[in-house]
Structures are given as structure tokens and as C-alpha cells.
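[audit] Reproducing an earlier prediction to check determinism. Same input, same settings, fresh worker. If the C-alpha cells differ from the archived copy the diff job will pick it up downstream; this log only records the rerun itself.
[audit] input (506 residues):
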Amino acid sequence: MIENRELSMDDYVAMLRRRAKLLLIPALLAPLAGFAVSYFFPAKYTSQSAVLVEGQKVPEGMVQSVVTEDLTERIATLEQQVKSESQLRPLVDRLRLVHGLQSPEDVIDDIRLNLHIEAMPTDAQGAPRHKPGQTGSDVPGFFVDYTASNPTLAQQLCNELTSLVLKENLQSRQDAAKGQTDFFSKQVEDAKKNLDDVESKLADFKKRYVGQLPGDEENNLKILMGLNTQLEANAQVLNRAQQDKAYTESLLSQQLSAWNALQSSTNPQTLEKQLELLQTQLVDLEARYTPDHPDVIKTKADIASIKKKLKEIKDAPATPGDTDEKGSATEPPEIRQLRLQVHQYGDVLAAATRDQKRLQEEIATYQGRISLSPAIEQEYNQLIRDDANAQKVYADLLSDKGKSEISLQMEQQAKGEQMRLLNTASLPSDPSFPNRPLFAAGGLGMGLMVGLVLALSLELMDKSIRNEADAEAALQLPLLASLPWVGEKRPAGPGGGRLWGKSRTA
């Protein structure tokens, strides 16, 4: 090939014509070689089964599915679970797949390498398949492929592994539903205990602070105001009774003095009446004063003096006039009426004093309740909030537990999402590897590549001058004229019918 010039389409066509044999021979021989090489590889047969994923029979708006992860992720999880040693070792032992010097671990590893689960992204028409009311993956199912050196073994293992996938999916869904139900049952039990504890605390609090709860504060204020009014009225009654009693006692004292002046001091009946009067006064004085009080001491001395006189009269000889004097010695009605009034005023004072003490205690109680109301209200509100939260948590968990139980029943009755065997494992008639047409096509490509490389190499090494453009590029001189080939035989090749002449321009 002459360098330092641009090649046209005619130049490339001329190259192809010159090197046609060099291109065709490798292109014809290489596919045959590739096809023959494919027979040196051991044949592998792939069996395939199809599994269809059917949606749950109950709408998801009514019953939530226990499995929420994407179908593609679940397929990958199922593949890993089926490839576990706990699943494959019983299969290897049952089918007696260990032969010769192989170990069970080698057979298990071989099964793992040859098992493939691929998603089925489209339906029969090639369009994505959506389930009504379900979002997420468009995968309606998946394929289970297994490759082995024997077509019957490939079919058998493909069927077994597909059954393992379906069984593992069913078991995992039921386990998930049962685990969810057990979890919510435990949560409901704990929530019920917590609710009982909170309600027990609330009941104890109400019992301990009865009448002091936030709703009772207004009533406590009203009751306190009423008690203060009663206390004031009681104080007035007490003061009035004390005044009346003091006034009556003074009248009685005056009446007794006048009446005693009229009576003989030696009359036994009079002395006994005086003794009773003094003893009554002494009881009243001792109730009001201490034993050291002058009135108490004087009254005791008077009582002792009268007792002494009565003893002297009893020791003296009796006279006819004594009986008449004893019968005629009686107190006037006015004195007896005054004594009754004094006694009544004493009862009124005692009752008023008791009422005063009671009212003061009740007022102190209600004042304490009112002063503790803010702290009690804060604690009470906290217990109310805890009780409301505990009730809400318990109600929510109870609802979730009911839903999980329905989901469990749906799984147990096969109303949830199901994986159904659409096509059983096929018996392969042709090996999946090596793919002999593919080997032949690869040989064709390699042959064309080798032919192109050889042709290009020969063209680069060829320095022949075949046309006017090659002559001008080789001599770097302009072409003046060209002469046709004159002879008995024309040289072969394009442009070979001419003899090129070159001249130097002036």
C-alpha cells in the first residue's frame, strides 16, 4: 500500500477483491473448528420448572398479609434457605447422590453452584403483571433451574428443589404468622398487667384522697364557708349561754342567801338542803376551776362545817319538835326553778363547747385539703394520663392481636398468598452447555477477525503501484500521460492494462 495519500471507496473495494480468498478461507474454516471444539466439553443439561405466585384471596384492605417484603427479596431469601446444609443434606442422603470418592459436602456445593432461581418479570404477553390492590414487585412468579450432566438427574433434582422452595415458603409464612400472633399476645398480656397496675394506683389514690380530688375543690370551699358560718353562730350561742348562766347563778345565790337567812341553822332538813346545794356548787366549781381556787376551798370548808353540825344534831337527844321542823323545811319553787335553769345552761355550754371543737377540727381538715389541692391535682392528672395511655396501648395491641389471629387463620386455611407449581421440571433433550451454534458463531467471528488482520497486514506490506494516484504519491510528481499496455498479454489486477510513463515538467 502506497502511503501518504487518501484512500477512496474504490481503493477499499479493490482491496476486498484482491484479498477475497484470504477473508473467505478463515471465515469458512473457523466455524467448523468452533463446532468441533464444542464436542470436547462435557455436556450439561438444564431442567426448568415454573412457579406462579397467586395473591391472597381476601382483600388486603380487610386482612393485612403477614409478609410485607418485596417478592424479589423473598425469592432471594428462599434460595438461600433452600441452599442451606440443613435442607440439602437430607436430600443428598435420600437420593443417594454421593458416588465414588465424593464427599457429601462436595455434592452439596455442586448443587449450590448449579441451582438458580430467576424471577419471572412479565406475563405470557410480555407485559408487567400487577396484582389488584397490591404494590411492589411486578414479578408474578419465578423459574427454578438446575443444571446436571444427566438430563434425568437434572429433572429429578429440579423437581425436588422446587418442592423444597414451596415447602419452605409455606412454612416461613405460617411461622411468620404464628410468631406475629405470639408476639402480640405477649404484648397484650404485658399491656393488660400495666393497665391493671395503673388502674389500681388510681383507685388507691382516689380512696386515699377522697374529697380532695380536683373536682372536689369547689365543694370543699363551699363546705368550708358553711363551717365558718356555723362556727361563728356557735360562738354566739356559747357566749350567750355563759352570760345567761352567770346571771342565773347570781340570782340563785341571792335567793339562797335570803332563804337561808329565814331558816334555822339547827334544822337538820335545812342543813341537808344546804349540804346538797354546796355539794352541787362544789361539783360545778371543780369542773371550772382547780382545787387551789379560793371558791373551791371555801365551799369545801362550808361543806365540812355543815357536816359537823349535822353530826352534832344526830348525836344530841331527840325532842318532840324535831319531826315537825324536818317536815316543814323545803326549798321554795323559785329556787328550784333557778337551779333547773343553771343546769340547763350548763348542758347548753357543754354541747356548744363540743360543737365548737368539732367545727374547728372539720375546718382544719378542709383547709388542709384545699392547701394540698395543687399537688394532689398534679399527681392525679399524671395518673389520669398514664391510665389513658395504658388504655390506648392496650386497645391498639388488642386490635393488632385480632388482626394477626385473622392473618394466621387465613394462612392456615390457604387463603393468603400462595406459590403454585405452574410447570413441573422439564426433561431437557438438548444440552444447555456447550451451545454448539454459539460456538460456530464464535468461530465465524474469530475467522473474520483473523482474515481481516491478515488482509490488512498484506496490504500494508504491499508497495505495488496500481493506478495514477499511487504513481503520484510514490514519485511525488505530476502525471503527464498514461499509455495502455501494448503486448500479447495484459498483466492481471486492476489497472494492469496500462503502462505508466512519467515526465518531468518544465
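[audit] rerun output stored. Observation attached for the diff report: The beta strands are 45-54, 115-120, 141-148, 418-423, 481-484, 498-501.
[audit] end
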